[in-house]
Amino acid sequence: MSLSLTRRVQAARRPSSQTFADMKPQRIVYVSCNPATLARDLAILKEFGYHAQEVQPVDLFPQTSHVETITLLSRGIPAPK
């Protein structure tokens, strides 16, 4: 993926996060199959006041390196320590 395409993809994701912020749901259940994009999107959602409350990896494909991650995000509630 070229650098300019990468920047466009990242810019395209930000409005989706803004849409979540505009809707102001109290909780979001985020299901991800890519830990790198999960980390990126959690950082964006944190800017809008969301904090990861619970994280659960799920191994749907045993004997492979793939893992899905389910994350419960809450707005306005700090993450547990």
Q: How does this structure look, described?
A:
This protein is an alpha+beta fold and 81 residues long. Helices cover 42% and strands 28% of the residues. It has a three-stranded antiparallel beta sheet, covered by helices on one side. The longest helix has 21 residues, at 3-23. 6% of the residues are buried.
In short:
The chain has about 80 residues and is an alpha+beta fold. Helices cover about 40% and strands about 30% of the residues.
Please report the total strand number as a whole number: 3
Largest sheet properties: 3 strands, antiparallel
Q: Sketch the topology as an H/E string, one letter per element.
A: HEHEE
**What distance separates the N and C termini?**
37 Å
Which structural class matches the secondary elements? alpha+beta
Q: Strand arrangement, largest sheet?
A: 1-3-2
Overall radius of gyration = 14 Å
Instruction: Assess the beta-strand content as a share of residues.
Output: 25-35%
The gross shape turns out to be elongated
Q: Averaged pLDDT, please?
A: 80
Structure annotation, total helices: 2
Poorly predicted sequence stretches spanning 5 or more consecutive residues: none
Secondary structure: helix percent: 40-55%
